[in-house]
Amino acid sequence: MEHGLKHFAEPGVSPERQRLYLELGAEVRANQRATDVVDDLMCKLLGVNRTDARCLDILDEHGRMSAGDLAAASRLTTGAITAVIDRLEKAGYARRVPDPADRRRVLVEPTEKAYEASMELMVAPMGELTRPLALRYSDEQLKEFIGFTREGREIQERHAEWLRERLAERRSQEG
């Protein structure tokens, strides 16, 4: 557990607190790997690639949205999102629909097939597995977990942006 995280030792922090930091870091990393495995298996069961599955997850969470909004949420170009929507439509997981507020505009929404797959493969089984765990905690503790998870996601997003900048720098140096 300590191998990759030894360099995070902080002066003035108790050994027990440092041990807890290391254990928390190891559990977060293990959770990310477990999530990656679940995502990979979901893709195989749905017959879609990881990018398409990420976009389908965004549609599942947010519902009907414009292709441009989906592109922004998934950090894809508008050209790439068109191909994603085409593939999701062909697989029966998404459909293009006219915008009721502006008939010239098209929106994308998940289909009933997408919702059924989400319920069957994620919502129902994960609810069954996590419900007993969640019931062990008070509302206040759950609020703390939500806050911790939100802040962790925000850290990941900032780190992803930093990595994008490093990648752009590397590409500009190579090209």
Explain this structure.
There is one protein chain. This protein is mostly helical. The chain has one domain (12-136): Winged helix-like DNA-binding domain superfamily/Winged helix DNA-binding domain (Arc Repressor Mutant, subunit A), CATH 1.10.10.10. It is 73% helix and 10% strand. The protein is built from six helices and three strands. A three-stranded antiparallel beta sheet has the order 1-3-2. A hairpin with a 2-residue loop joins β2 (94-99) and β3. 10% of the residues are buried. The model has no long low-confidence stretch (mean pLDDT 94).
Q: How helix-rich are the residues, as a percent range?
A: over 70%
Kindly identify the CATH topology.
Answer: Arc Repressor Mutant, subunit A
Strand order of the largest sheet: 1-3-2
User: CATH first level: which class?
Assistant: Mainly Alpha
Total domain modules: 1
The main pleated sheet reads as:
3 strands, antiparallel
What is the tally of helical segments?
A: 6
Q: What Rg do the Cα atoms give?
A: 20 Å
Q: Architecture, CATH level 2? A: Orthogonal Bundle
Q: Determine the structural class based on helices, strands and strand pairing.
A: mainly alpha
Question: What percent strand?
Answer: 5-15%
Q: Give the tally of β-strands.
A: 3
Low-confidence runs: none
SSE series? HHEHHEEHH
Instruction: Kindly report the average pLDDT value.
Output: 94
Tertiary shape: globular
